[in-house]
Amino acid sequence: YAEFDTLLMGRRTFEIARAMGENFCCKQVIVASRSLRPADYPEVEIVSEGLEAGFESFVHNLVETFGSTA
């Protein structure tokens, strides 16, 4: 976990992690969600566009947008 600077997760995983007390300190967090409102979670990037196209397409678009260190 410490080796990653960016975390990509779905809404449910994000909600569970926050309920367990995770604050994602020093991490860029990208949450794929159609229902979360970005204004409610300004500390994370809420991505809702492109989810219908499928996960592979969604991740490809994220890499093009945010870059990759892999």
Please describe the topology of this protein:
Elements: E1 6-10, H1 11-19, E2 28-32, E3 45-47, H2 55-66
Query: How many strand segments?
Result: 3
Q: What structural class results from the helix and strand content?
A: alpha/beta
**Rg on CA atoms, Å:** 12 Å
**Share in β-strands:** 15-25%
User: Can you list the strand order of the major beta sheet?
Assistant: 1-2-3
Count, helices = 2
Shape: globular
The H/E string reads EHEEH
Biggest sheet descriptor: 3 strands, parallel
- What is the helix content? 25-40%
Spans of at least 5 consecutive residues whose pLDDT stays below 50 are none
Q: If you average the pLDDT, what whole number results?
A: 84
Separation of the first and last Cα atoms: 15 Å
What's a concise summary of this model?
The protein has helices at 11-19, 55-66, and strands spanning 6-10, 28-32, 45-47. It is α/β, with parallel strands linked by helices and 70 residues long.
